[in-house]
Target: 8-oxo-dGTP diphosphatase
Amino acid sequence: METGLPKFDSAFSIDCVIFGFEAGELKVLLIERNEDPFKDWWALPGNMVENNESIEDAATRILYELTGLHDMHMEQFHTFGAVQRHPLGRVITVAYYALIRIIGQKEVKPVTKYAKKAAWRSVNELPKLAYDHSEIFETSIQKLRRRLGYQPIAFELLPEKFTLTQLQLLYEAILNKKLDKRNFRKKMLSYGFLKELDEKQKGVSYRAAKLYKFDRRKYYKIFQNDLTPEN
Amino acid sequence: METGLPKFDSAFSIDCVIFGFEAGELKVLLIERNEDPFKDWWALPGNMVENNESIEDAATRILYELTGLHDMHMEQFHTFGAVQRHPLGRVITVAYYALIRIIGQKEVKPVTKYAKKAAWRSVNELPKLAYDHSEIFETSIQKLRRRLGYQPIAFELLPEKFTLTQLQLLYEAILNKKLDKRNFRKKMLSYGFLKELDEKQKGVSYRAAKLYKFDRRKYYKIFQNDLTPEN
Model:
């Protein structure tokens, strides 16, 4: 492409924060880098945007190359552009996040050699990440916390049928605080968007708990009003 | 800076969507460009990010240069990165928005020659904007619409004391639809976050309407709950 712009020693990249919920823990998908800078460090799946692809296409491609995951709805949440954030040049990065249901069913394995491996890590035990990825992760979880109050994100992470204990563990993980069990259940059930099923947990050695489903229609009816145009 | 990155013919820019409310109309701040490409077109205030400044610093600088406005809280809302969005090269743009109170009191005048002038334009009568700025504007107003349901943004645009008619005009402008006057007033007053003042509009030739104030503390009490960690 002919260009009238000054040549910048600059580029842009994509970084992806993929959240999943498994065994009572909120997890995030990381890769172990195989290249300098930050060789052998854990990082968010991310890479450079090519000159001939939109940032949305780049996000899909990069996530696939580094984790083998595809067909995932990712949402852009923030762009990070501190001057010194990349040791090799001026790189601003557009960050996306996604919520996935039942992470055990998704195989995660890098397609390129750029990453040694990909793995789910509990958000409570994250190592120091490469670049400014710890800051990017922190921003994404703050975003998640805010959305918890007005969007049904918890139900995108849980299996279709879940127990109230699972729901509480997920809220606690996102909010990063313990909640009172009695109050939590009372409050959650009082909204009316949880549908009690005539089914119990299977395959547990302890006392099986009741299963619930999420009634999305009721949720929106409660939390939206006629002054709110969109969900 | 020594760099190991490939040289990209690329750059990043900032665009600002500044909303104001005046005389019953929702307005946005535009500049008339003085340079190619898009000479003489109307555009959002925007320009390139320098290599030695963060994107936040660039946003503040660029808004000041193009409109004379400063000390404004702007919030990043989306980054636009279609391949062909800039005719001169690959440029992705980070978009910010801000809400300003009482726009008549803010002088808007470009500091640089890059823009011929800056002016408030009603969102209902916008010309076709330069670059993909019409799309950026459309995205910003969708964002505003969504936030109207759970954040007190209307009250950041209105003067401290306002009439219910002003409030309704603002809601109508943001939602882009007519609302029933009776239902709107009933609903708004039922929340309890509007405080009726012992004062009426001044300087109007028609029947003066009652003035109201917004009770922010009550608003948050109503729309937040103990499962919502932040405002």
About this structure: The first strand of chain A starts at residue 10 and ends at 22.
